[in-house]
Amino acid sequence: MSGENLILTEVRDNVEIITLNRPKVLNSLNSEIETELERAIDDAISRDDIRAIIITGNGKAFAAGKDIPEFVGRGGDGMADVSRTDHRIFSKIRNSPKPVIAAIHGMALGGGLELAMSCHIRVASEGSVLGQPEVGLGAIPGAGGTQLLPRFIGTGAALYYLLTGENIPCQEAHRLGLVDKIVPSDKLMVTSLAIAKVIGQKGPVAVNLVLEAVRKGIELPLDKGLELEEELWRKCGVTEDFNNAIKAFMEKKPVVFKGK
């Protein structure tokens, strides 16, 4: 242990900002920082006052990838354990009932891109690069990259980048749908917070149900996805937020959401 906080947390206007804090090694993801990241995610999800989460990196990069020295001597079973741990932690982000925004600057490579892809929205600063370079080390992505990248950009494009290990410039990542918004470097956090604030002003239950509908529905045939939507609509119909919002709309009054 270095004695420093590997994860920094800050709350602004009901948004928790989680910052990876290993700037000297471009926020590479070792077991210690991932343990702290998991703890921070669990805490943010459990807090009633938190409406959205932003993950970013301190210094010059979002995250340059996994901490390669930790792989030395691990062997097959050891590497499978690393992959299993990554999957467990990153799935908490994907399954979060609160929206998680990746604020990407500099590099999001390897495990860094897999972390970003596990977030619900990706905002990138101009000049940032993304990629899965693992084949250059004789490896495959192990924190979800082989499964997530094709879901974002299609099989052909994903195979191109997975097999060549080439970086994806942020403009190309945006064109492919991997990045949702590109902003100037000095606007990255302002923009990410603005997006989080807009979402935070919506009905918390509805936000949660949208995330659930998309997360589950994308893996289903359309007819089954529509059945899921119907069931989630049923849940909406009995919430205080929905019924109070309808009443407020009819009475031309401001809507006050309670998350119930």
Would you give an account of this structure?
The chain has two domains: 7-200, 2-enoyl-CoA Hydratase, Chain A, domain 1 (Alpha-Beta Complex); 204-250, Lyase 2-enoyl-coa Hydratase, Chain  A, domain 2. β1 and β2 (15-20) form a beta hairpin. The chain has helices spanning 31-46, 75-94, 111-118, 145-153, 155-164, 170-176, 188-200, 204-217, 222-237, 240-250, and strands spanning 7-12, 15-20, 52-57, 100-104, 107-109, 121-125, 129-131, 168-169, 181-183. 48% of the residues lie in helices and 15% in strands. With 260 residues, the chain is of the alpha/beta class. The strands form two sheets. Strands 1-2-3-4-6-9 form a six-stranded mixed beta sheet, with helices on both faces. Strands 5-7-8 form a three-stranded mixed beta sheet. The radius of gyration is 19 Å and the shape is globular.
Provide a brief overview of the structure.
With 260 residues, the chain is α/β, with parallel strands linked by helices. It has 2 domains: 7-200, Alpha-Beta Complex (2-enoyl-CoA Hydratase, Chain A, domain 1), CATH 3.90.226.10; 204-250, Orthogonal Bundle (Lyase 2-enoyl-coa Hydratase, Chain  A, domain 2), CATH 1.10.12. The chain contains 10 helices and 9 strands.
Number of domains: 2
Can you tell me the overall shape?
globular
Low-confidence stretches: none
Along the chain, the helix and strand elements come as EEHEHEEHEEHHEHEHHHH
The CATH architecture of the largest domain = Alpha-Beta Complex
User: Which CATH C-level class of the largest domain is it?
Assistant: Alpha Beta
Q: For the CA atoms, what is the radius of gyration? A: 19 Å
Biggest beta-sheet profile: 6 strands, mixed
Structural class designation: alpha/beta
